[in-house]
Amino acid sequence: MNNLHHENGQFGKEPWWKDATFYQVYPASFKDSNGDGWGDIPGLISKIDYLHELGVDVVWLSPVFESPQADMGYDVSNYQEIYAPYGTVNDVDALVEACHNRGMKLILDLVVNHTSIEHGWFKESRSSKDNPKRDWYIWKPARYDAQGQRIPPTNWRGYFAGPTWTWDEHTQEYYLHLYAPEQPDLNWESEACREAIYDNTMRFWLERGVDGFRIDTVNKYSKRTEYVDAPITDPNSAHQPAPEMWCNGPRIHEFIHEMRNKALAPYGAVSVGELSNTPHPSQVLPYVSAAAQELDMVFEFSMIRLGTGGMFGPKYAYVPYTLQTMKAIVAKWQTFIEGTDGWTTVFCENHDNGRAVSRFGDDSTPELWRASAKTLALWQITMTGSLFLYQGQEIGMKNMPATWGIDEYKDVESISFYNEAAASGEPKKIAQTMEGLRILARDHSRIPFQWDDSPNAGFTDEGVKTWMRVHDAYKDINATKQVKDPNSILSFYKRALRLRKTYKDLFVFGSFRLLEAEDEAIFAYVKEVPREVLDSQLQTNGNIYQKRPPKKRMAVVILNFSSSKRDCLDVRSVLGCGGEDEAKLLVGTRYNEIHGNVEGSILRNGAVAPSLEPWEGRVYVNF
Ligand code: GLC
Ligand code: CA
Questions:
Q1: Of the options 2.40.128.110, 3.40.440.10, 3.90.400.10, 3.40.190.10, the CATH number for the domain spanning 120-176
Q2: What is the structure's pLDDT at 593?
Q3: Alpha carbon 335 to its chain's center
Q4: Ligand 2 center to 87 CA (angstroms)
Q5: Ligand found nearest the CA of 215
Q6: pLDDT of the residue at 13
Q7: N or C: which terminal CB in the chain sees fewer CB atoms within 10 Å?
Q8: Which residue has the least CA distance to atom 2 on ligand 1?
Q9: Ligand 1 neighbours by CB, cut-off 6 Å
């Protein structure tokens, strides 16, 4: 017990997933093995070594189940079969094996708020009002307005514009769908339905050896059961935002606790839930407190939603934000678990958002692109929680070019919002929506991965028509080029991810304190080893900090989030260095590019840290 570097988390007592690096694969766009322009599981298997070398511990695979692809597989028609273009169940078995052979793990995407309309359960449910599965979905009679016109049971607006209800001619009732009409919501109030979910989807895959799930829309299983109109907040629309009707409903904690007990805990499976519309720590903690036995961790979206005009109608009306706002959000969600038994996640990309380097960094020139992508990397790897990367983030993949028109956008949400704007006939609204889509659309993260500089970027063979267009910049931005370049974004990620592990007590488990909260250029914070960890280390010998007494071990992270040169903070005073105490540069994004700013260099008494280049990031430590 005298070594900090335990395989099994911190000091052997933390679960393995806390210091794990997760990597999300969007399978349609990762690697195509058979030349049909659509990524597949054999393609992913052929790239497992690439992920292993990057430092990935867990692959999160977005949905690959049988699906009519109304929402890229988030509409499942059979949980036990694989969508043929992705491969077969045997291919998933081979993927599990490929991960496990390398000491990695695999989690799947569990989409059980809704199914596809093509799922057998829904076909049965809609077949008649007295079918035993009728109540596995949410059916309600029509209402009629003063003119006798049929109208939906409530006035709710769905996520993809339009109402949350679709009329079924056959049984003369409406069914509920928070997303597309092709994605009817399951009725978690039905115990038989819940049991089927646990057995048919979760146990089936856990029995085959997968290690857990990313759980889609996890806080929408329990709806308010009154089914009443939402207040009118968008007078120009027939459909009103109503998340309070279906998020964090009255039985949500009961359902999730049951799901864990019945289907996750028996397998020791890890769970990370997608927790939208839940922006208060007091609402989030009950989901992630260890004692509550619900979810291991969740994705909270305040940061990644920055710039959106809101969740519903105005989502793509882009709203600029300040660095001060962003920092306050990060600080809030970094610190909310301190002193609790909860856990959190770190991420700045996923398949539902634009690329981080284009949104939070600066992709306007090659120099700023590279510098900002590395600084975003340093930001992510120094934050507390389980780290999630999204495919292509590690090579600084950026948003689709601004010159691409709406025809290159394939996502159901982008198209729905664009059509809604187009239907308004207002040129200003159309232009505004298009502008928002250029920054925020879900499409940007879904274009083919740029593997090399061959035609189609090595995603698939030359001459093949890819399902989404390959980025024009693939000759400059691709993995092969960056593997060879020690100064590339990819090489930086590799080093940074290893550093995160070496100093996990600071970076993964440390406390977070924001500095210079109002500065509009510098994002700086202190990471500190929590007291209880120090105490437990005092009893161990030969740890990596032997040279200095293990007290008040600190790192200060200083990131220039601007495109101009800035003064550095007074590093020594932030770290509390008095007299001859030293501050050491542990890592910097430009360490070997700039004279006099070499990793391991020391700031002694009186020494001042050199000023920061545009988008430069550094970490100094007091040990
Ligand atoms: C989640 C997914 C998103 C999908 C939606 C409906 O938000 O991340 O891609 O459209 O759920 O399943
Ligand atoms: Ca393929």
A1: 3.90.400.10
A2: 60
A3: 19
A4: 8
A5: 1
A6: 81
A7: N
A8: 216
A9: 71, 74, 111, 179, 216-217, 274, 351-352
Indicate if 489-622 has the same CATH topology as 120-176: no
In the prediction, which pLDDT does 440 show? Answer: 98
For atom 4 of ligand 1, the residue with the nearest CA is 74
User: Is 274 noted as a catalytic residue in this protein?
Assistant: yes
Ligand number, closest to the Cα atom of 28? 2
- How far is ligand 1, taken at its centre, from the CA of residue 473, in Å? 28
341 catalytic? Reply is no
The domain segmentation of the chain, as residue ranges, is 120-176, 489-622
In tens, the pLDDT along 78-110 reads: 999 999 999 999 999 999 999 999 999 999 999
Taken in order 170, 176, 177, 183, the sign of the CA dihedral is negative
Burial of 617 (0-12, 13-18, 19+ CB in 10 A): buried
Contact 433, 405 (CB under 8 A): no
Which ligand 1 atom is at minimum distance from the Cα of 114?
A: 12
In the chain, the amino acid numbered 491 is: S
Count of positions (residues) in the chain: 623
| Separation between Cα atoms, residue 349 and residue 390, nearest integer Å | 6
Which segments of the chain have a pLDDT < 70? 1-12, 531-551, 592-597
- Number of helices (H) and strands (E) in the chain: give both, helices first: 19, 21
Backbone conformation region of residue 150, classed left if phi is above 0, alpha if psi is from -120 to 50, else beta: beta
Tell me, in angstroms, the distance from the centre of ligand 1 to residue 186's CA: 15
Q: Determine the pLDDT at residue 598.
A: 81
CATH class of 489-622: mainly beta
Ligand 1, residue 179: give the atom nearest the CA.
6
Residue 144 confidence (pLDDT): 98
Q: What is the pLDDT of residues 195-245, one digit of tens each?
A: 999 999 999 999 999 999 999 999 999 999 999 999 999 998 889 999 999
Instruction: Give me ligand 1 centre to Cα 333, in Å.
Output: 22
Nearest CA to ligand 1 atom 5: 74
Largest CA distance in the chain: 84
Give kind and range of the element (H or E) at residue 409: none
pLDDT of 547:
47
Contact 30, 460 (CB under 8 A): no
* Encoded tokens for 489: 């974004």
Residue 47 Cα to ligand 1 middle (Å): 25
pTM for this model (two decimals): 0.95
CA pair distance 338, 353, nearest whole angstrom = 28
Q: Counting atoms of ligand 1 from 1, which one is nearest the CA of 71?
A: 10
For residue 184, which ligand has an atom nearest its CA? 1
Question: What pLDDT is attached to residue 551?
Answer: 57
